[in-house]
Task: inverse folding
């Protein structure tokens, strides 16, 4: 605590008048022994820091601050006017010199020399830095336990940490009650002669308990709990100075908690982000539906049996990205070609060219050309897959195979998926596309996923001002095809421009490491959560050298503990446990909530 004389007297005055308060918070018994005190049911001991190491590096007290046990550290930092200090140091150095002229034991001589050197060093700093302020630092460490035995064990454990830091401590023997006062928040330094240490500003700053392994911004969203320090990991992805982009990639073996993290994060963003923020989710496993419904969002289920249709030919608006050359129709054409390539992966270059011709022709049937304005255009005024199917029935002999495949999407089993005018609207600020029913049909789920993403991308690019969050779970479905992977990369790279953020999860790193687009997605992820991974996945990560991991980090991920992993935000990394509040757990996983808290949601 830093304090001035004025503040001290104010505080003293306040405490002095609060006799009632003091009586209320005082323990029933306060009994002083030689090297401990009994306070109510507790046993306590105060240690004095009597010496500090000669030189220190930043965060040198981290180990002490991370000590797990009932311990309080009280550090008093008192600024001293530099001229007063210079006079004091001058006098001390003269005294040490006089002492060294006397006959001394070798130990005393060494100690005195050390003190003299230290005083000279301090004087040098003061004179060299234009008489900057010097601080007197006093540190007291207070331990508390339920029994004397426990207190002894705690002291012993602490001693070994203290030894590693280079500090020298001593119990305030016969002075315990007095020393205890220095630990209380009353700005009282009770044993200054034992504890005082001169320090310049840099040395004082190294004492402050800011840990480099901490990721704690002034505001933001809690990502989890730092497993090294037990503090929360608080990150503000909207801080543009710190994070040039916001996208987050979550990797982890099945069951490690990727979808769980996403749901919890969604709940927090839903509450904490700007009120006009729009949320779009692609949910291949039907894990988000319950959460989304509970907070008032809309779930759109796309399957062979539901009536929801997003027409691949539909164009939502007329806005094109400055970075992209070509008309709205031209850009749509590129995405349509990916869509049809996913339906018919063996499409040749010639077939692709013919298809493009056919696509322009069916748009023409609806009077749609490169000059058409689309805003406000009726959903029915666009061609459908049936139109394409009929159109290529004649004069497109080389598209015969493609036409057969297309038939399953117009008349066959998948006829309800894409064929018809778009009948979904995106008015709800939170929309989840549930595509789980398509899981049985391994071929169509990735197509639908791409299709939804493409539709959402049109919606996202409508304006550059409304904040948007795009959640894509099971993204490996998109990584299967190079074309859809490249599209995801494109979305990933450009979403920031539209005030958006993508949060993407996948099971295996190799989905991302195996291809150039995947690697680029990894490199464009300013946030990353690496949950437990299989050994071969960790090997893949190492081999591809995209994300260097320390041995400790590898061990953490290799342990495969649900909800535990490495969280990366920009240049910061922390070992993190995904946290959840009871209320969040109730919404996300009612069964687990009931098991933990004993009642059903
Ligand atoms: N941090 C956590 N706290 C409590 N429960 C969790 C946590 N993480 C995951 N779970 C629970 O573990 C189970 C599996 O988690 P989840 O479905 O999120 O895994 P996943 O990584 O998405 O797996 P998959 O790759 O198969 O989709 C769920 O029932 C979930 O409720
Ligand atoms: Mg999952």
Result:
């Amino acid at each position: 605590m830093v304090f001035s004389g004025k503040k001290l007297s104010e505080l003293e005055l306040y405490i002095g008048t609060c006799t009632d308060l003091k009586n209320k918070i005082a323990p029933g018994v306060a009994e002083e022994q030689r090297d401990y005190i009994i306070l109510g049911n507790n046993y306590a001991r105060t240690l004095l820091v009597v010496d500090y190491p000669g030189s220190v590096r930043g965060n040198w007290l981290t180990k002490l601050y991370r000590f797990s046990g009932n311990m309080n550290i009280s550090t008093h930092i008192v600024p001293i006017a530099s001229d007063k200090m210079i006079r004091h140091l001058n006098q001390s150095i003269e005294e040490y010199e006089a002492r060294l002229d006397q006959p001394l034991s070798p130990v005393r001589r060494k100690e005195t020399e050390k003190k003299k050197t230290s005083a000279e060093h301090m004087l040098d700093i003061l004179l060299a830095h234009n008489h900057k302020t010097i601080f007197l630092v006093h540190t007291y460490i207070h331990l508390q336990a339920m029994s004397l035995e426990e207190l002894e064990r705690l002291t012993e454990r602490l001693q070994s940490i203290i030894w590693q830091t280079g500090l020298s401590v001593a119990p305030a023997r016969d002075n315990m009650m007095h020393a205890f006062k220095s630990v209380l928040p009353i700005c009282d330094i009770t044993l200054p002669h034992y504890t005082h240490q001169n320090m310049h500003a840099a040395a004082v700053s190294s004492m402050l308990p800011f840990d480099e392994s901490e990721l704690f911004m002034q505001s933001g969203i809690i990502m989890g709990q730092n497993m090294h320090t037990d503090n929360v990991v608080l990150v503000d992805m909207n801080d543009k100075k710190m994070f040039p982009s916001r996208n987050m990639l979550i990797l982890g073996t099945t069951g490690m908690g990727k979808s769980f993290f996403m749901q919890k994060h969604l709940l927090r963003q839903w509450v904490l982000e700007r009120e006009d923020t729009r949320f779009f989710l692609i949910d291949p496993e039907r894990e988000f539906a319950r959460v989304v419904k509970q907070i008032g969002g809309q779930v759109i289920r796309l399957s062979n049996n539901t009536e929801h249709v997003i027409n691949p030919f539909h164009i939502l608006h007329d806005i094109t990205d400055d970075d992209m050359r070509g008309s709205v129709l031209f850009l749509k054409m590129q995405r349509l070609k990916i869509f049809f390539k996913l339906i018919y992966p063996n499409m040749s270059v010639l077939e692709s060219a013919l298809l493009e011709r056919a696509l322009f022709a069916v748009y023409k049937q609806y009077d749609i050309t490169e000059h058409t304005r689309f805003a406000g255009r009726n959903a029915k005024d666009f061609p459908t897959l049936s139109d394409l199917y009929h159109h290529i029935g004649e004069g497109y002999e080389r598209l015969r195979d493609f036409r057969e495949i297309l038939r399953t999407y117009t008349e066959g089993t998948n006829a309800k998926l894409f064929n018809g005018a778009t009948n979904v609207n995106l008015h709800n600020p939170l929309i989840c596309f549930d595509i789980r029913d398509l899981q049985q049909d391994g071929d169509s789920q990735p197509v639908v996923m791409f299709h939804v993403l493409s539709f959402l991308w049109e919606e996202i690019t409508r304006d550059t001002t409304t904040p948007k969050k795009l959640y894509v779970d099971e993204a490996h479905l998109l990584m299967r095809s190079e074309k859809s992977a490249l599209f995801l990369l494109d979305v990933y790279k450009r979403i920031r421009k539209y005030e958006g953020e993508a949060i993407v999860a996948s099971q295996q790193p190799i989905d991302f490491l195996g291809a150039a687009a995947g690697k680029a997605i990894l490199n464009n992820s300013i946030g990353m959560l690496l949950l437990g991974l299989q050994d071969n996945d960790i090997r893949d990560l190492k081999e591809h050298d995209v994300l260097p991991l320390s041995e400790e980090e590898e061990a953490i991920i290799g342990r495969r503990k649900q909800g535990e992993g490495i969280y990366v935000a920009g240049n910061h990394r922390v070992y993190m446990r995904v946290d959840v509040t009871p209320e969040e757990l109730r919404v996300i996983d009612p069964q687990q909530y009931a098991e933990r808290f004993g009642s059903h949601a």
